[in-house]
Structure formats: structure tokens, C-alpha cells
Amino acid sequence: MAQAPVPLKDTKLLDVKLGQLPTWLAMRDFTPGGVVGALRRGYDRYYNKYINVKKGGLGGISMLLASYVVVSYIWSYSHLKHDRHRKYH
């Protein structure tokens, strides 16, 4: 017995075919409330998967720290780029 097809609006991004991507993106909610809701759902998924576990480790915290380091480097890259060729003598 075949399952009923999932509506495109309820399809996950990884399950969307390349030809359906523009239609799928047009169905997303890009209002400030929709973006905040998506960020909230992403944070909740991350928290429940890596932080709120019975037997936790350093994996979730180290990923958060690594992402902070990468974002900080990206934010300060333009300043670092100008200092790279400066002579200190």
C-alpha cells in the first residue's frame, strides 16, 4: 500500500527536488515572525539533540563554541585583512 504524497508545503528541505525549490521557497513565511519562529524551532532542535540529553558530553557545547569562533572571525575579517600587510618595524 503506497503512502499518500506529502504536500510540498510540509516537505523538508532535504526532500525537495531541485525543480520544486522555487515553489517551496515561495511557500515559506519570510515575515519577521516567521523568521523568528524558524530560528526558535532550530534552537529547540539543537538544544534537545545536543544539550538536553540524559548522558551528555562536550559535543554540543564545543559545537556552540566553534560556531562562535567562526562567526567572530567572519565579523572581524575586514579589519584583519587590512592589518595583514601592515609592517611592524
TrEMBL record:
The region annotated as signal peptide is: none
Q: How does it sit in the membrane?
A: Single-pass membrane protein
InterPro entries from the xrefs? F1F0-ATPsyn_F_prd
* Major location (coarse): mitochondrion
Question: Which UniProt keywords are listed?
Answer: Acetylation, ATP synthesis, CF(0), Hydrogen ion transport, Ion transport, Membrane, Mitochondrion, Mitochondrion inner membrane, Phosphoprotein, Transmembrane, Transmembrane helix, Transport
Q: Output a single Gene Ontology CC term carried by this record.
A: proton-transporting ATP synthase complex
Q: Which domain of life is it from?
A: Eukaryota
Q: Does the keyword Mitochondrion apply?
A: yes
- What is any one GO biological process for this UniProt entry? proton motive force-driven mitochondrial ATP synthesis
- One short Pfam name that applies is WRW
Subcellular localization: Mitochondrion inner membrane
Instruction: Report the transmembrane regions from the record.
Output: 57-77
Family, per the entry? Belongs to the ATPase F chain family.
Function recorded in the entry: Subunit f, of the mitochondrial membrane ATP synthase complex (F(1)F(0) ATP synthase or Complex V) that produces ATP from ADP in the presence of a proton gradient across the membrane which is generated by electron transport complexes of the respiratory chain. ATP synthase complex consist of a soluble F(1) head domain - the catalytic core - and a membrane F(1) domain - the membrane proton channel. These two domains are linked by a central stalk rotating inside the F(1) region and a stationary peripheral stalk.
The annotated subunit structure for this chain is:
Component of the ATP synthase complex composed at least of ATP5F1A/subunit alpha, ATP5F1B/subunit beta, ATP5MC1/subunit c (homooctomer), MT-ATP6/subunit a, MT-ATP8/subunit 8, ATP5ME/subunit e, ATP5MF/subunit f, ATP5MG/subunit g, ATP5MK/subunit k, ATP5MJ/subunit j, ATP5F1C/subunit gamma, ATP5F1D/subunit delta, ATP5F1E/subunit epsilon, ATP5PF/subunit F6, ATP5PB/subunit b, ATP5PD/subunit d, ATP5PO/subunit OSCP.
Q: What is this protein called?
A: ATP synthase F(0) complex subunit f, mitochondrial
* Species per Swiss-Prot/TrEMBL record: Otus sunia (Oriental scops-owl)
